[in-house]
Write a structure and sequence with these properties.
three-stranded antiparallel sheet, 408 residues, globular
Amino acid sequence: MTILEQLDLRRWQMEMESELKDNILSFWMKHSLDERDGGFVGQMTNDLQVNETADKSLVLNARLLWTYASAYRKYREPGYLRMAERAYHYLISNFQDRVNGGYYWLLNDKGEQIQTKKQIYGQAFVIYALSEFVRACPDEKVLQEAVRLFGLIERYSYDSKHKGYIEALGSNWEATEDLSLSNTDLNEKKSMNTHLHVLEAYTNLYRVWPSEQLKEKQKELIGTMLDHIVDLQSGHFKLFFDERWNSKSDEISYGHDIEGSWLLMEAAEVLADEEVISRTETIAIAMAQAVYEEGVDEDGAVVNEADPQGWTDTDKIWWPQAEAVVGFLNAYQHTGKKHFLQAAYRTWNFIDRYIVDKTNGEWFWKVNRAGEPGIAEMKIDPWKCPYHNGRMGLEVLERLEKLTVRSN
């Protein structure tokens, strides 16, 4: 009996589709709408208590647009389109800087700007979301806004001397000392995280706007990531850098490693450059193997962080689990090595058993090594959204369909 037969891929497909549609997507449609002030609520506790005065983040709004545009592209369900349209209109009406271009980082509960810096991570997610909306509902105006934002990033954030992108700029795209993405990030000029999501955004934009300019920038960005951000000896991402690419941290983020492994491959494949694909595949598989060997606990879950001496944070946070399912499945598709498929399925089983909130819906933010949920963490906040787990569902369904066809 083959590993494909043992895992019963069709049953896995049914489980995944039920989780995606009946839990993740339906939860946000039911609980996240801000009927008082428009858009979406900024914060909700694990037991579904809304903080009506919570700030609203660019990341949450853009990720909601991406998620429901992608869901509509697959299922063509009107409710998903309404969610995408709500996110799009709030993004344009409230987050867009009509004077300087780009998008504000943070609004208050009334939709008024309170952090106006241009965090490139946030701008990238807007491109990612707008591109997906175009894929679902072709619209020249939406496409041109994504292209304009690409131009602003290239004009103001791109480092022509050392390559790559500066983390953040001021309201009118001037240099700023306030660079960090969050209070847990270093205040450095460049980061893995921003480059990973610029890569992701440019990949999606290239699908709807395959210009030579974007092709060259994306090819360069893949090379920059492989040359400077991936540690080729360890198979891990380095996380923070000065402008000359001197590393400023020895921390290991297993979730970003496994996410990056498949996003790098996706970027290379969409670019359709065989030389780039070949180099990227070798490195991406090495990254997935490093996470498999070093970052997976006995229960099949991915632990959060480590340093060169070993694990430093053994919590099982929701988003690395989602990315591990996709990343390991991607590694299996590229290598045929059974341990990757088994790892993907084991992580999914862990999610279903421990991370999915069977009482209140959606997913817990995290569980500890004993499987106990962190109930103090939010169910909705600037970072807790349906992008990682919703994308997991969509990606896994598409990949399992290909594997099922191949195995028949």
